[in-house]
């Protein structure tokens, strides 16, 4: 055969070999993709035993090779077959508070026309996983499991994806198939209502007057001579009639009540996890009260800004907050707040007991002079107290239940 005639034949043979290899990989995928570490060790031991048995006529190794090979073949039978489940994962509530009961439901249905062998359904929950045995299911039959999720700590728990597991008794082969998408369960921090207790200095629903003079506002300041271009609606006609000269009203510019909460997430600022959890709860309580009263609120942490436009979004973001080692100090966050939250009328620092007074004073100095600043220092078990650091008022809280009284005292001062 000439080379020109041989080339097409070799090409066809090559394509056929590639298709055959792909088909073989597809057939063997349920097995090769399910080999565990024990399975790999067993395969390696079987290969060594076969080599030793044939090369050295070592009968004992030949027996071991046969036993290992039979064991592996038997394991293959456990993982072969198709899964035809219809799986539904349902969380009764996607958002709960720390300590509340979170319940989930797992429903497994046989959607095929044949009975399905028993298997195991695994549901990853956070860092762990729950395993539920599923019995043999007839065509159209279903199996339901109800489970609870621990909510002892504020966090965002990923539940799922639900995966079916089929494995041999020795654990040599393990085949997994995912059936659902993962879902998030938000465990919100505990908060307390501040109804009846003003959030710091925020008392005026119309806003707080500043030293800036405006030609149009709600806080009257004085009268001045009319100049061309002034709005005639602001002419004070009684004074004009009395003096014979046009006089217009002048106002003090008011600022809408805006609360900025600076929550320190620096690990070194807290003596324990309990301190940080109390700080997160205090931050959430202040933010929710401002949202409830329809005041603007901005919550800043070391890593950036949280969403303060809605109570659910704020609590969702607080559920993700963690204290981490960082070089970003409270004064750095205060500098960012002074540059970005320019309309804030009250700033509250929420920190742990390990923050020294010098850091509080330095953070306060980074804010504009006309902004009221207070600090809430969280120390579980400590007696509620109040002291000042330079011009900064510092409240020490030993528990979340003390926050309404502390804010009421601060407002009455």
CATH H-level homologous superfamily name of the largest domain: von Willebrand factor, type A domain
- Whole-angstrom Rg: 35 Å
Number of strands: 20
- What would CATH call the architecture of the largest domain? 3-Layer(aba) Sandwich
Give the class-level CATH name of the largest domain.
Answer: Alpha Beta
Helix content: 25-40%
State the domain count: 4
The structure class reads alpha/beta
Keywords: Membrane, Transmembrane, Transmembrane helix
InterPro entries: DUF58
Domain DUF58: 223-375
Transmembrane segments: 38-58, 65-85
Structure at a glance:
By secondary structure, the protein is α/β, with parallel strands linked by helices. It has four domains: 31-80; 85-186, Immunoglobulins (Immunoglobulin-like); 209-255, no CATH class; 258-412, Rossmann fold, CATH 3.40.50. 33% of the residues lie in helices and 30% in strands.
What does the model show?
The chain crosses the membrane at residues 38-58, 65-85. Residues 223-375 form the DUF58 domain. This protein is 33% helix and 30% strand. 30% of the residues are buried. It has helices spanning 3-32, 37-55, 59-79, 237-243, 273-292, 311-320, 330-340, 357-365, 403-412; strands at residues 85-91, 95-97, 102-110, 119-125, 128-134, 142-149, 155-159, 163-167, 174-178, 183-188, 208-214, 219-225, 247-255, 258-263, 296-301, 304-306, 346-352, 372-378, 385-389, 392-397. The longest helix is centred in the first third of the chain and has 30 residues, at 3-32. Mean pLDDT is 81; it is low at 199-220. Helix 2 runs antiparallel to helix 3 (59-79) and helix 5 (273-292) runs antiparallel to helix 6 (311-320). It is an alpha/beta fold. It folds into four domains: 31-80; 85-186, Immunoglobulins (Immunoglobulin-like, Sandwich); 209-255, no CATH class; 258-412, Rossmann fold (3-Layer(aba) Sandwich). The chain is elongated, with a radius of gyration of 35 Å. It has nine helices and 20 strands. The strands form five sheets. A seven-stranded mixed beta sheet has the order 16-15-14-17-18-20-19, sandwiched between helices. A four-stranded antiparallel beta sheet has the order 5-4-8-9.
């Amino acid at each position: 055969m000439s080379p020109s005639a041989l080339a097409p034949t070799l090409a066809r043979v090559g394509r056929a070999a590639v298709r055959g290899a792909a088909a073989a990989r597809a057939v063997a995928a349920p097995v090769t993709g399910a080999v565990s570490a024990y399975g790999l060790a067993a395969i390696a031991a079987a290969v060594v035993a076969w080599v030793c048995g044939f090369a050295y006529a070592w009968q004992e190794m030949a027996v071991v090779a046969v036993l290992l090979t039979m064991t592996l073949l038997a394991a293959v039978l456990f993982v072969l077959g198709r899964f035809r489940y219809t799986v539904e994962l349902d969380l009764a509530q996607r958002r709960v508070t720390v300590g509340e009961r979170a319940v989930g439901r797992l429903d497994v249905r046989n959607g095929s026309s044949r009975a399905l062998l028993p298997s195991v359904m695994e549901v990853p929950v956070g860092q762990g996983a729950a395993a539920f045995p599923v019995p043999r299911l007839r065509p159209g039959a279903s199996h339901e499991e109800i489970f609870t999720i621990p909510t002892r700590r504020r966090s965002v728990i990923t539940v799922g994806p639900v995966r079916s597991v089929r494995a041999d008794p020795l654990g040599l082969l393990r085949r997994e198939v995912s059936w659902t998408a993962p879902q998030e369960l938000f465990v919100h921090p505990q908060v307390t209502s501040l109804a009846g207790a003003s959030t710091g200095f925020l008392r005026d629903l119309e806003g707080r007057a500043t030293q800036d003079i405006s030609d149009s506002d709600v806080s009257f300041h004085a009268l001045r001579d009319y100049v061309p271009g002034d709005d005639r609606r602001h002419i004070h006609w009684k004074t004009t009639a009395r003096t014979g000269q046009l006089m217009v009203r002048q106002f003090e510019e008011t600022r809408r009540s805006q609360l900025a909460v600076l929550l320190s997430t620096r690990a070194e600022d807290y003596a324990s996890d309990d301190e940080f959890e109390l700080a997160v709860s205090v931050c959430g309580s202040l933010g929710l009260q401002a949202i409830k009263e329809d005041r603007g609120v901005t919550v800043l942490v070391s890593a950036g800004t949280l969403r303060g436009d809605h109570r659910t979004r704020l609590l969702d973001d607080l559920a993700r907050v963690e204290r981490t080692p960082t070089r970003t100090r409270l004064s750095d966050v205060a500098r960012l707040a002074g540059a970005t939250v320019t309309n804030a009328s009250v700033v509250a620092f929420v920190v742990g007991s390990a923050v020294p007074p010098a850091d509080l004073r330095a953070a306060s100095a980074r804010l504009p002079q006309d902004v009221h600043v207070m600090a809430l220092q969280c120390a579980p078990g400590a007696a509620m107290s109040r002291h000042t650091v330079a011009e900064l008022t510092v409240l020490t809280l030993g528990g979340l239940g003390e926050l309404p009284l502390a804010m009421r005292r601060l407002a009455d001062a």
